[in-house]
Fold:
Amino acid sequence: MVARMSRKQVLVQLDDAQVARLDVLSDAVGDSRSGMIRRALDLYLDAVAEGVADLRYAQAYQRIPDDLDDLAGLRSLGLSVWPDR
Structure:
């Protein structure tokens, strides 16, 4: 049995060109306009969340950078590290 999530109706205004493009795509994949918009919104929200996570990760390294002495210790053991620039 597949559980369906409840949905809330939301009004979204699109211009004629967007509706035409959406109709072509939804016909090609056999999905409704609403289904296509839900899928596109999920992809967009996931991409934004990933970008925010990447930004936080980069900011964390700016606050607490790698200890280069630790990397030198790895080199002395003959282990590979990030290449020098």
About this structure: The first helix runs from residue 16 to 29. The chain has a mean pLDDT of 86. Residues 16-76 form one domain.
